Amino acid sequence: MSLEGKTAVITGASRGIGAAVARMLHERGVNLGLASRSGDDLGLENVVALPCDVRDLDALTRLCDATAERFGGIDIVVPNAGVGAYGSFLDLSLEHLDEMLDVNLKGTVYAIRAALPHMLGREGDVVTLASEAGRRGLPYEAVYCASKFGQVGLTRALDHELREHGIRCTNVCPGGVATDFALEEGRGRTPDVLPGMMTAEDVAEVVVFVLERPRRFRILETALRPMTEQSWG
Ligand code: NAP
Questions:
Q1: Which structural domain, as residue segments, surrounds residue 24?
Q2: Measured between alpha carbons, how far is 147 from 154 in angstroms, rounded to an integer?
Q3: Are 107 and 7 spatial neighbours (Cβ–Cβ below 8 Å)?
Q4: Which residues are catalytic?
Q5: Is there a contact between 74 and 68 (Cβ–Cβ < 8 Å)?
Q6: Which pLDDT band, with edges at 50, 70 and 90, does 230 fall under?
Q7: Could you give the CA distance from residue 214 to residue 204 in angstroms, rounded to a whole number?
Q8: Is residue 232, in this structure, part of any structural domain at all?
Q9: Of 170, 169, 172, 159, which is closest to residue 129 (Cα–Cα)?
Q10: Of the four listed, 2, 139, 140, 143, which is most buried by Cβ atoms within 10 Å?
Q11: What global pTM score does this model have?
């Protein structure tokens, strides 16, 4: 199915997986609304990009309203903005604990809340960037897992509510992806773990695959893992 002329809102679009999804959709002629705190437009045309913290529903609403006004509506929302901090449960700082729940889970709820009014009445897609950590409890990732299980539950539940509106809901659940994710000092990931992980483009191709399927069916969940990782399954 061609995506040309559709309009997509992507959160966390300034780098990593969100930026790769934005670039691939742009190549396919999709108009874009891009949210990140930096407000980066990736140097692309046909883009509405605003500095936008996904913890702020008003900011997301401004971005979605401006995107819908410029392009006539919204067809696709990709809640992707996310943060991580790994370590033992009691050692996790309250700042990182709150940030993961607020950005990953509430930020996803808010992104869909802000985009959905502009999607009703057109066939559309919600594609949530969750994680393998949203499918299994993983050691030293308890709060990250909680935020990701929340995203998965939200998107699975919305599938029931939105199917009658012709809106498909999908969780994309990658394992390790070599991006800036959790590399900041004190978040528990170091650059030596990146070789052998998937690339942001690998994941973006899966998002595009999901979106390009014929509208007679929907993909509820995809699980992808690098060959270097066990499946815990
Ligand atoms: P990344 O490279 O660190 O990029 C994160 C993006 O989120 C950036 O564009 C960042 O932009 C944005 N962001 C962070 N906090 C934000 C906030 N409060 N408001 C708005 N935007 C915010 O991470 P990534 O690897 O691409 O991760 C993207 C998603 O995939 C996340 O949900 C992550 O949990 C999930 N995931 C990642 C991996 C992995 O191994 N990398 C695996 C599975 C799932 P600004 O800093 O400009 O705001």
A1: 7-223
A2: 11
A3: no
A4: 144
A5: yes
A6: confident
A7: 18
A8: no
A9: 172
A10: 143
A11: 0.98
